[in-house]
Amino acid sequence: MNKQEKVAELLSDPGLVERLSACADAGAVKSLAAEHGLELTDAEAAAALDSIGEGELQRGELDAVSGGNSRGSIELPAPTDPC
User: Fold this and answer.
1) pLDDT tens, 28-39?
2) Domain annotation covers residue 33
3) Do 13 and 22 contact (CB within 8 A), yes or no?
């Protein structure tokens, strides 16, 4: 089984996905992956961390919205007049 297949298999487990979502940094992602026999590079772990919650705000976007990162910005649509 190649790495991509192993990742797909692991991500089919909702409990594991929940644990992955709780990871605070790439090191935690690497440790979790290693527990399941998957060795990730630092770049792969960082990419996995950034892709958590696809379809939702990305980590950097969330930081920008919450005030945790002044480097990012998100353009919000202009309010509409309900009248």
Assistant:
1) 999 999 999 999
2) yes
3) no
